[in-house]
Design brief:
2 copies of one chain form a homodimer. By secondary structure, the first copy, chain A, is mainly alpha-helical. In chain A, 54% of the residues lie in helices and 6% in strands. In chain A, helix 2 crosses helix 5. Chain A starts with 16 loop residues before the first helix and ends in a 21-residue tail after the last helix. Chain A binds a DNA duplex through helix 4.
Amino acid sequence: MAADIPQLAPTPLAGRAGFLLSQLGFHTAQRFAEHLAPLGLQPKHFGLLMHVSRGEGRSQQQLADALAIHRNVMVGLMDDLEDRGLTERRRHPSDRRAHAVYLTAAAHGLLARAQRSADTFEAEVLAPLDEADRTHLIALLQRLAEHAGLPAGIHPGLQRADSQAADR
Amino acid sequence: MAADIPQLAPTPLAGRAGFLLSQLGFHTAQRFAEHLAPLGLQPKHFGLLMHVSRGEGRSQQQLADALAIHRNVMVGLMDDLEDRGLTERRRHPSDRRAHAVYLTAAAHGLLARAQRSADTFEAEVLAPLDEADRTHLIALLQRLAEHAGLPAGIHPGLQRADSQAADR
DNA sequence: TATTGTTATACTCTATAACTATA
DNA sequence: TATAGTTATAGAGTATAACAATA
């Protein structure tokens, strides 16, 4: 059945850093999403909650800028979080067009659990490495990320839309 | 305007291997796609061409199994490649339901160019690291990939559909 | 005239099922 | 009855434009 298929050299892809990063990155993102699912959160919601918690009261546009996403996308994300009772849109003190975004008490509790979940996940990812290798790997990845011009903590999977461009 | 936004601690995400892998992986995949675009190829086409070249004459189903994708997806990919004159569907010698897939002469030339392009890209990705760090990084990533159960050279971004499940 | 939030629409991707011709 | 290839349809996700309220 498979007798006439010659088994040639192993694919060289598995030896390329570019392929390994893409392969591992995709798989890691996928597994992290599964890891977070029991909390009812997707990675993008987790990331947004983290950013909101770093400075409550900001407008949706400010949050969108911080995450490098389009404000239209932010509306949908905020709807998700508000529907789940995790954030509140209050009136902005100085701009009546804008909303000031705050976390609810429930969100603070959930965020703490999500971070513990992320810690557990991190340990799983790094399981095969000893302490020295873990430190080294993270340092190497950070150097690559810096060289690639990636802003710390901003996931490019969220920043599809060109937030520079105006409506027009 | 932004005076009342306290700048708190930097996001801890940038120190997590899981986040860095996902962030770098996504960005790397995106940039590789741009790198390949001048050749008129997407990464998935490149990957498929590589697999076809490793053993010509296989059926679409065999190729789909090798890449862990659903045969329905394979039809679309093969259509793309055939429309571009890169592959041929010939009649299978032993099974008249199946097609035997072959590369054209044009595909061999394009594949060689694509691999050179991938080499250039690899050098760009690894630019900030010296030789020892490059070797170490690749070894570390390979260990993580193996621990995660990722088959060498198979990108999980392609294998969405559950190729185990039958039609029904 | 520009900006914030919102909504609507179109477009791309993926998943699923169903069909045909063979086995 | 099962399998290879194909096609069609529905759903999720993203991009773009347009609108009302406010600056």
